[in-house]
Structure formats: structure tokens, C-alpha cells
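Reopening this one. Same input as before:
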Amino acid sequence: MPFYLHLVPLAGFAGLMLIAAVEDLRRLVIPNPVVLGLGVLWPLQLASGAVVSLPCAAAAVLCAAAVFAGGALLFWRGLMGGGDVKLLAAATLWAGPASTPALLMTTAVLGGLLTVALLTPLVLRAVFAPAAAADAVKRMPVPYGVAIAGAALVVTIPPNLS
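Same output, byte for byte:
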């Protein structure tokens, strides 16, 4: 296979991650077809020769399953959205076992920055109306899919371009 063939599913991965981020920003929803598309493209990435061996692919699936299980616990506790859990598991599949820690850490950092950016206007408003601002902070949704997609792109794309 030509050496550049792996870029086709990788481009699809990037496009779907961008769609997930935009939809989460707009509607606080990560569409199921986006996550399904990521799952369908991953075997194409494998077929293009991007993953060296079957044990590496199996390890990626195990990492994704572990992240999904941990995310399901967070979802059950009301700490994470279901779409975020599915997107993070799909991103883990693409990142692979070696890059999963980097994916999770980058997601946490980007999620923290996103939360600070969303909280800043509320904190400034709290100077003038503290009670109203405190209530708004408790109810403030965070489109965490943006952080997940950003981290997935940062962690997954560069190694696949070399």
C-alpha cells in the first residue's frame, strides 16, 4: 500500500473530531453518528498499515474499553456526559495504549482551560450580583467534547504524519 494511504482515515478522524467539538459547543450534544464514524474509520486506519501488529490493536481496544468503563462510572455519578464518555473512548482507540496517558492529561488540561474561560464572565458578574452568579456556576454546562476533540487531534495527528 502507498505510504500516504493512512492519511485518508486520519483526515476522516480529524473531520469527525471537529464536528464533535462544534456540535458540543452549539448544542451540548455529541452526535452518535460521529462516534460511530470514528469507530468505523479505525479499522480502515489499521488496514492502511498504521498499527504494526494485532497485539497493538488489541491493546488499543483494551485501553478504550477501560476508559469507557471509567467514563461510565463518571456518567453514572452525573460527572460526565454520555457523549463525552463515548467520544473519549473512541479517541483512546485512535491514540493507542502508548498515547492514552497523554490523551487523558491533555484532555484534562484543555478541559480546565475551557472551564476557566467559561467561568470568567460569571466570576466577573459575581462582583455585582454574588447570589445570582453562584447559582449560575452550579448550573453551568461545560462542552467537554471540545477538550476531548482538541486533545485527540493534538495527540493523534502528529505521530501519524511522520
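So the earlier flakiness isn't reproducible anymore. For the record, Helices lie at 7-27, 32-47, 54-76, 82-95, 100-126, 130-139, 145-161.
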